[in-house]
Amino acid sequence: MMLVELWFHYAVPVLLALLLARGLWALVAVELSARWLLDNARRDPVSADEDGPWLVVLLPMLREQTLAPETIAAFTALDYPRERAVVVAITTEREENARRRDRDRLPALADTSCLTEAQLRGTFPGDRCGDVADEVNAAPKEKRLPLLAELYDAEPTTRETVAALAVGQPAVGLRLVHLHQPDTGGRKAGQLNHAVDRLDEILSPLGWHDENDADNTFLCVYDADATPDVRTLTAFADIATRRRALTGRPPALIQQQRLPLLGRRPFPPGATGLFLAGEWLYQLRRSLGIELARIRLTQWLTTTQVPSPIRTLLRPMIYGVGCGMTVHLPTLRTLGGFPEPMEDLGTGHRLSLLGADIAPATVAVLDEPYTEPRGLTNLHALAFLTSARPDRHAKGVAHLPSALTRIGKALLVLREWADEIAWVTGAPLIAAVVISAFWAGPLCFVLALTGVLLHGPVLTARLIKLAPALHAAVVPPTCRVTAAPCPTRGRRAGLIANSPAQPFIRLAGPWRMIFRRITGHATTFGKTER
What we know:
With 530 residues, this protein is of the alpha/beta class. It is 57% helix and 8% strand. The chain has 22 helices and 10 strands. Helix 1 (2-41) packs across helix 18 (406-436) and helix 19 packs across helix 20 (489-498).
């Protein structure tokens, strides 16, 4: 009886107040961040000159032969002096080895009575799986295996595609360099570090010298499905130059905001598509209300006269995002390269723990939302795994000088642990509190209703309205890109009504991984398909 009273009289009101505060903060943070991006998008950055920073765009690619020509064309067309920047596409022997192994699967696939797109995932490029499945299913049974083998052998690898682009590149635009990584294990970070180790080979044809130019060099990391703003590199150079003039040193990290507003692939029909479309909005909400808001808060704390104890209490953990993450070369070398398994979260955590100077980019980058559940749960599980051990990142940089005190670093680690606990327990706990509010009194009921509406439907409706303007604010370098489809009135109503359940969708990946570890099953992560 005492526990019931404690729950209804103390726990429920406190948790509902926190839900309301969080909903208000999310709404304000999203609005302020969106306004900041839209306002800055109207201002052209100062054009870079021959003394501007050296910028190296890194495009690690794995099974991206379909998108590679479009992506490389976009990045090599960025507005920046050709003699001060280069685009590096990094393919990997892992793809070649997997291709040889996957060929042994073809007989079993050909024997499948009705081959599906999902069964071909990882064997063919994602956007080719549906066409291949239809073609094989339409063939007579005895011709299925020869046809499947013919289609498989005719598919170029990413290495072949990029190599052809490197040989036939035009004389205008940024220079393309193709690197091929041996199969040394690891993930995206390994491909990036392979390129970092070869910077002299990449940049020396432009007159770059490590001893003279390293301090003025930045590495710009992107996903292969990204579409950048034509002003991206100019904006990076402008930020780096201004920050060096203001503080005497360049920023350690410039983070460009990733907006999942491309519409290359449609969402599937039915409930699955509705939940994935809801996740698209949730990703946009996170990019604006958490990632950009935290960087802007960090920048404010480091550039204003805030008392040290308040700065220590308010300083957030920064989440690096590996689509638009630009790192100062000496800083990266100090860290020992990009960390596995997620180069972006790991880099953001480590630089946060060092109290490094982190700046937001004034223009955004577009990429694709997830249109199939497997890639989404894979992403969430890997992100949780990387974020759940901030103590490891703290240990990894413990030998390096930090602008933070020991207490400041400890608070960051504790805050990140609290975020991870909230991730895996928050949605069920809040659901229990909201249900309990029906019996806890009218005030609690009003708090519950207001908190749920602010956190879900109100913010979702605002994001749906902001999305077209945010997409239009990104000026692509080559051609007009397709926006994520504007929801119909019925779909919009479904997304708004479904929004309170969306936090439960993000639990699937972490809880599945936790369950597999408890039951002794190995957890492996392949390429996160979109």
